[in-house]
């Protein structure tokens, strides 16, 4: 008896294989896109990181960092615990400043910051720097002192002199000014007044209300105090930024004014 003949199996069409291959390629492409997106927005699996130190809260000027105290003391000084003020945070190396302080241990951070005084506001999220200009060692200036605002602008032997003006000054910290004054009590010229440039290229350290704080030598501070208390009028004139010339002016009086302006 003859065995039955099996029917010939139909071969898969070329179109089906094409669809299968296309699906595989699309899946691979989708995976590549996902990997690219993750690497771009997630920093990449090989991105270099550094452990830096950031402020955990706003630290106002005058705050003293401490390992043992926290809160306002009886002497009026506000202490902030270092562990509460700063935290370690891992960031991408290309994000961290070049002079960022690299966190090693809490004990090292405590040794670095203990008794440091905040000289200008340290805002939450800002990164601690090596030799950070926003911090000063206790004893280099009393908390809240004007000398903590920009101590690098004061050399040994210089002081801050307060000059009170009749209205809000146009000068701002960082300006350089000349002081003009009108003086009438001139021994060699009784009954006459003169206006002249008395001090030149003086640094404006700070401004508070109508008071301007100028960086002066001790002797210039003495002279300025006498001048501003006896002069009939005085004014600050603002110099052009970067101007290093020494002004030479002639005192102005009734005679020079009449001659210069053809009175």
SSE map:
Blueprint: H1 14-41, E1 49-55, E2 64-66, E3 71-72, E4 78-81, H2 82-85, E5 86-92, H3 106-113, E6 116-118, E7 135-137, E8 158-164, E9 176-183, E10 194-208, E11 211-217, H4 218-230, E12 233-238, H5 254-260
Summarize the entry for a quick read.
The protein has a five-stranded antiparallel sheet, covered by helices on one side. The chain has a three-stranded mixed sheet with strand order 2-4-3. It has five helices and twelve strands.
Structure description:
The chain is elongated, with a radius of gyration of 36 Å. With 263 residues, it is an alpha+beta fold. Helix content is 23%, strand content 27%. The protein is built from five helices and twelve strands. 14% of the residues are buried. A hairpin with a 5-residue loop joins strand 3 (71-72) and strand 4 (78-81). The strands form four sheets. It has a five-stranded antiparallel sheet, with helices on one face. The protein has helices at residues 14-41, 82-85, 106-113, 218-230, 254-260, and strands at 49-55, 64-66, 71-72, 78-81, 86-92, 116-118, 135-137, 158-164, 176-183, 194-208, 211-217, 233-238.
Features:
5 helices; three-stranded mixed beta sheet; elongated; five-stranded antiparallel beta sheet; 263 residues; alpha+beta; single chain
Summarize the biggest pleated sheet. Answer: 5 strands, antiparallel
Radius of gyration: 36 Å
Q: Which regions are unreliable across 5 or more consecutive residues at pLDDT < 50?
A: none
Mean pLDDT across residues = 84
| H-E string | HEEEEHEHEEEEEEHEH
Class per helix and strand makeup: alpha+beta
Share in β-strands: 25-35%
Helical content band: 10-25%
């Amino acid at each position: 008896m003859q065995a039955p003949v099996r029917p010939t199996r139909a071969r898969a069409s070329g179109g089906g294989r094409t669809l299968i291959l296309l699906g595989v390629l699309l899946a691979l492409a989708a995976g590549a896109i996902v990997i690219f997106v993750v690497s771009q927005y997630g920093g990449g699996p090989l991105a270099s990181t550094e452990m830096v130190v950031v402020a955990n809260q706003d630290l106002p000027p005058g705050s003293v960092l401490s390992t043992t105290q926290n809160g306002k003391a009886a002497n009026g000084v506000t202490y902030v615990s270092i562990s509460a003020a700063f935290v370690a945070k891992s960031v991408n190396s290309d994000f961290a400043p070049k002079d960022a302080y690299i966190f090693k241990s809490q004990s090292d951070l405590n040794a670095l910051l203990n008794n440091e005084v905040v000289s200008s506001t340290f805002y939450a999220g800002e990164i601690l720097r090596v030799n950070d200009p926003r911090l000063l060692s206790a004893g280099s200036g009393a908390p809240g002192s004007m000398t903590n605002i920009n101590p690098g602008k004061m050399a040994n032997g210089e002081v801050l002199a307060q000059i009170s003006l009749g209205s809000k000054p146009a000068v701002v910290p960082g300006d350089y000014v000349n002081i003009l004054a009108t003086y009438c009590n001139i021994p060699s010229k009784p009954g006459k007044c003169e206006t002249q440039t008395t001090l030149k290229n003086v640094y404006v350290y700070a401004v508070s209300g109508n008071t301007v704080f100028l960086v002066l030598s001790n002797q210039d501070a003495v002279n300025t105090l006498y001048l501003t208390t006896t002069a009939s009028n005085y004014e600050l004139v603002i110099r052009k930024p970067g101007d290093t010339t020494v002004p030479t002016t002639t005192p102005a009086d009734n005679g020079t004014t009449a001659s210069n302006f053809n009175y």
